[in-house]
Amino acid sequence: MGVDFPLAGAEKHEGTGQSSGITDQEKELSTNAFQAFTVHSAVEEMDGLDDVENSMLYYNQAVILYHLRQYTEAISVGEKLYQFIEPFEEKFAQAVCFLLVDLYILTYQAEKALHLLAVLEKMISQGNNNKNGKNETGNNNNKDGSNHKAESGALIEAAKSKIHQYKVRAYIQMKSLKACKREIKSVMNTAGNSAPSLFLKSNFEYLRGNYRKAVKLLNSSNIAEHPGFMKTGECLRCMFWNNLGCIHFAMSKHNLGIFYFKKALQENDNVCAQLSAGSTDPGKKFSGRPMCTLLTNKRYELLYNCGIQLLHIGRPLAAFECLIEAVQVYHANPRLWLRLAECCIAANKGTSEQETKGLPSKKGIVQSIVGQGYHRKIVLASQSIQNTVYNDGQSSAIPVASMEFAAICLRNALLLLPEEQQDPKQENGAKNSNQLGGNTESSESSETCRCSILACSAYVALALGDNLMALNHADKLLQQPKLSGSLKFLGHLYAAEALISLDRISDAITHLNPENVTDVSLGISSNEQDQGSDKGENEAMESSGKRAPQCYPSSVSSARTVMLFNLGSAYCLRSEYEKARKCLHQWLMPPSTLGGVGDQPGHMVKPHLY
């Protein structure tokens, strides 16, 4: 699990802002404005744009669609405008291109954004050369001409700086850190130590694993110099605290992370209070405000981050409350539904602190001892967790942290994942508009998410006693092409448990073969593995890099021990006690390879006693 809201810190083009959850009133206001532009226009009717006024109309329509978070429709309008961009005035043509670049980055089409940025660079260079040629033929002594030239030069430099910033964002999205490192230098040269440039550099260092340096860069940014949310639609203080929370999350300092996210929520609430304080009439609450301020509220992204942090520090119920509020806006985000299901699972796990770390206490194995001497018998304690009744009579559709609701969340998550790789441009606009932070699942990310969802689905189905569904999910999990070692291990265990419950013990024994376990890694993407490749010879990755979560089993030998334990239990069910005894002896005798009994969970002692 991880925080899915990326580090912010890039200036937006004029008239736009970052995607965010918006209220119904804000959406209604934007929709009314959008309808005013679409009375006599449709994208399909854009056969020609000879009239400049019509092009302005379509551009404004695209900007409103952007603020409605309908990115696919906005891209359709913007790309139509781009087809007829040659006769446009230079400044307007640049505005269209910058809008499209922003939309491409929001929909994870970094390659298209980079192509358009190259066109923008060429456009600006040609425009500058044309102006220089006109100035040489004209009267260079004209005072107005020199002032105009200075203003034009400043605008060109500002546009170049913005291009470099967009390139950094695109390269960060592509995890191309070598190219990003070159562009970061250009950003620092053109924009100096401005807040956006420092935020971008901090994001870059964050991805490299240099967390202390990322924090240092954030602390050195001068937030007071920022124009403010009324001009940009962005609350920089909110971003600052959010970014600190993201960094400390990556450092596994989750209590500090939740502290910073709460600070970000406070800043966000203060900004929203200032925006609503300007008008006493609820009907005119949003009148007289720049459109970009409609997207200033970042409450739902921050609630998502708080939920993830709370889940990591062992507070699943508090995490559930945060995430269930965020899902009201980002209901088409499969990862959000997965996190909700994980909250439900953690809240109903019913294990001690030792068991969550993989080393449960052996106390309580023996319930009592009856009889004396030769007739002395040991009564083992029953595993009450297997007899837990999760449904207390209420509807499973009610959003409470129950296993029934977890099953619904996981079904939603599976339905929202694409069956195969799709072009983000072809996806439904409503889906894009509800992705958290404008995030559209890449193919690799979708496959990783699918594996986690299937593993959780199998676990929940077993807990609810739906063994056929559990077996179905486990089989699908084992068929996934990009399956981490740890999830493959769980897939075999869940499939075996379901098969045993279905009285198919022979099939279960096939899954419980210890040779099935060759790896228990959580799986690290190739992008993350290559993050340090751009470092110099004397520049090392910080020791406080991303840490793998502590999980059980922690090694292949421990995993095989679990397999042997379950295999012995399966043999017991078939009354093959000699085979069961051999399995138990394998993990009891050689502690150097399979781990001694002292390292094993307490319930593993029961078959040996039996």
From TrEMBL:
Residues 429-440, 520-530 have a biased composition (Polar residues). Residues 128-144 have a biased composition (Low complexity). It is found in: Cytoplasm; Nucleus. Keywords: Cytoplasm, Nucleus, RNA-mediated gene silencing, Transcription, Transcription regulation, Translation regulation. One of its GO terms (biological process) is negative regulation of translation. Residues 128-149, 422-443, 520-552 are annotated as: Disordered. Signal peptide: none annotated. GO terms for cellular component: CCR4-NOT complex; cytoplasm; nucleus. The gene is CNOT10. Component of the CCR4-NOT complex which is one of the major cellular mRNA deadenylases and is linked to various cellular processes including bulk mRNA degradation, miRNA-mediated repression, translational repression during translational initiation and general transcription regulation. This is CCR4-NOT transcription complex subunit 10. Belongs to the CNOT10 family. Its main location: cytoplasm.
